[in-house]
Design a protein that fits this description.
homodimer, 242 residues, Jelly Rolls, four-stranded antiparallel beta sheet, three-stranded antiparallel beta sheet, 42% helix, DNA-binding
Chain lengths: 242, 242
DNA sequence: GCGCCGGCTTAACAATTGTTAAGTCCGGAA
DNA sequence: TTCCGGACTTAACAATTGTTAAGCCGGCGC
């Protein structure tokens, strides 16, 4: 039943929201266009006014903002099952970029189709609205991460959050998982330079916490990782009643 | 017509969204309970499961998160006309705190009343949804601010953003406006210590950019301020078509 | 295979920011 | 009015993070 193109989205909504089977079937029935993006390819740019939303079918994307002096901040990392530009349903103009981190498959659904579905099934609207609120909850934790945690804790937190989210869509097996960012991009996510990112990664490796090599994280010491990350996943609101 | 308790909210929605007069009248007709909070009083705490939402009628609030070691990060500053806990309509549990910065008057509206209104007027639902998306857009810029800008630019940005938002609800006259945070709280907003906040404020004063005294910002040199803030207000989506 | 290029690694040094510790100032309570 | 406490201010010093620069490594195109 969830063996559709947008299976990851359906799986995530089924386990984390109170979506009815009817609503999920209606979502699966939405008309979409599948498009592939290459590593580093822009999907949407700051200022764009898109008329469709995308579901990540496979691969990783990031949302980011670049400021005047060229510095870039990564705002969020997106994985299969995410709707990284759903906000465009009500905010006409993109205020940031959406970029493919790895080769990606995206299912594009016209705003008009989504609006029609919401009109005929208001509970689907609630599910979508909730998804954008979850987005905001993740942004809030990201602010805390960048604002208050030391760089090594910050990196541990990003890693644990990503792993939790990947687990929800069945993308983690064993002690390793994909995180296809360069060290420079990890730095842009943390708000530090690539040189400092490298320092932190080396320290984590020497301390036997984790290894990061060519886009793959391997956890060596789960206990130490948890200690560093200070991760409290309540903000992911991963059960319907939270 | 906008001389109601929630005038600031109505004014903001009228100018920044495409809300119809009928929708705005329906909003004004919502039943509410007015409650007053004192400076520093908690309105909602992390973990609460509220059954109503509030509109800020008067005063300032902040949303914040406190991490294990006691450090606190301010996530957003809220002003009259804001709906700082609208996300609870779909996320049952608070994942952060909402605190009154100054003495505040808040109008509380039951979730059930809001849900009823949305059901009978879906366009009101769109307006509310959009408002939470705007919230998320402000969070995104806040991430950029904390992650990429040097502390003096960061403070300038916070000040300019706050002023823009205060202007929308008619709370700025001349070159001064209220920002009732202590230096420690400004630091918690920027992700720096109170000592460093003090350094930055002194430098801005010596450079003739602005003065901050007892919760009031006075702009001395608008040009220098703009230069520091690197402020691009597009993310505030302050016209209906953005 | 060879060379190129992007990404990784490291080191030395500089700048920013945090920590600690003393005050000072000022408004409200007694 | 006086005193008290919270907020502000400053300085000295420490820690973290940025900057610059150089070399290395490894995959990919020729």
């Amino acid at each position: 039943m969830t063996d559709t193109t947008i299976a990851a989205l359906i799986q995530r909504l089924r386990t984390t929201t109170g979506a009815s089977d009817d609503d999920l079937r209606a979502l699966e029935a939405l008309p979409y266009t599948l498009r592939n993006y290459r590593e580093n390819q822009s999907i949407l740019r700051d200022g764009d006014r898109p008329s469709e939303c995308c579901v990540i079918v496979d691969g990783f994307c990031v949302r980011s903002k670049t400021i005047e002096d060229g510095k870039r901040q990564i705002l969020s990392i997106h994985i299969p099952g995410d709707l990284p530009d759903l906000q465009n349903l009500h905010l006409a103009t993109m205020d940031h970029d959406l970029v493919a981190l790895s080769n990606c498959a995206l299912a594009f659904i016209a705003h008009s189709a989504i609006r029609d579905l919401i009109r005929s099934r208001p509970t689907v609207g609630d599910i979508f609205w909730r998804d954008t609120l979850l987005d905001a909850a993740v942004f809030r934790e990201w602010i805390v991460n960048v604002g208050q945690r030391a760089a090594h804790n910050r990196l541990a937190h990003i890693i644990v959050e990503l792993r939790e989210r990947l687990r929800m869509v069945g993308r983690v097996t064993g002690d390793a998982f994909a995180m296809p960012l360069t060290q420079e991009q990890i730095g842009e996510a943390m708000g530090v330079t690539s040189v400092h990112t490298n320092r932190i990664l080396r320290q984590l490796r020497l301390d036997g916490v984790l290894e990061f090599h060519r886009g793959t994280v391997k956890i060596l010491n789960e206990h130490k990782l948890q200690e560093l990350a200070q991760f409290d996943g309540r903000y992911l609101h991963s059960s319907p009643s939270t």
